[in-house]
Design brief:
membrane; transmembrane; mainly alpha; transmembrane helix; TPT_transporter; 2 domains; single chain; 64% helix
Amino acid sequence: MSRLPPRPKLDRHTPLDGRHHEARRRSVRRGQLSVGPIAGVADVIRFPEVAELLDVCWLEITGKLKPAALAPLSGDDVRRLTCLLLSPVAGLQRRDAPAGAGVTPLKPHQSSPTKPPALATAMDVVSSLSSSPAPAPSVLKSVLLSYAYVSVWITFSLSVIMYNKYILDPTMYNWPFPISLTMVHMAFCASLTVVLVRVLRVVAEPTSPPMTPSLYAASVVPIGVLYALSLWFSNSAYIYLSVSFIQMLKALMPVAVYSLAVAFRTDSFRRASMLNMLGISAGVAVAAYGEARFDAFGVTLQLAAVAAEATRLVLIQILLTSKGMSLNPITSLYYIAPCCLVFLTLPCLPTSSPLVVV
């Protein structure tokens, strides 16, 4: 018997054209079908379409072809493939079963209560091919939505920075009272969050643990004081420094947060992280050295704002997160903004005396 040419192998990129059907016809006539462990069904195949279908099934079983890439099977194809797969497998199971293994013969009108493992596997394969795959979530939609949120945040943040610079810069609007500007900001935040939480009930107050006066004084008041100092110093720096240079100095925030976290033992010391922090510090030093409008008092104010903000972030982890209190952005402002407003009011009179006269 002459050797047949090797049968072309199917993969996910191979189209099922006439050459494959012809190769399958020759293989089926000679009884040389070899499709993995289901090669025992070759003697009952008499048409090439099912042979191609078996090849595709085996590619899907071995993980070389995803079901989503296949065209949906018709009901006739599924029933035909079921008969071809199950009949020989069930026969092999009965033939290979040892004698006296406790198998009770069934009467003609009875059905087997349990399926053999190979039979169940074959039925599962056919069921998975005949059922359409569940639709996967749109990754592109999630990415676009995330970029949209980031773009909105950057737009509003940049707008607030430029507006503060316009109000506080001596060459522009020339409003030399940054603390009063911060008070207006905190008063608006406190009023809005009270309406959202108490009136509209957009979010609920945390109940585990409940916010008691003692917990508020021990956990929220220190954070409110540091937040007030951070906003006060940061807005004051706009009077003396340019916006670009202030943003360069704010790059020291990760360095300050990591250093304080290691000092308060909320984070472990890592040499690689410290090397990254030193690189950031070196970059900020180079930017400060080349700044045309360098002002020592303005740099001191901005560094004090960075230190206050870094301490506030570390204390949030120590005073709130460690006690099991989880606050979202609205509830955080709901508790912190009134406290911050009170502590901004205390230094407002001595530092904004011309405002009082007016």
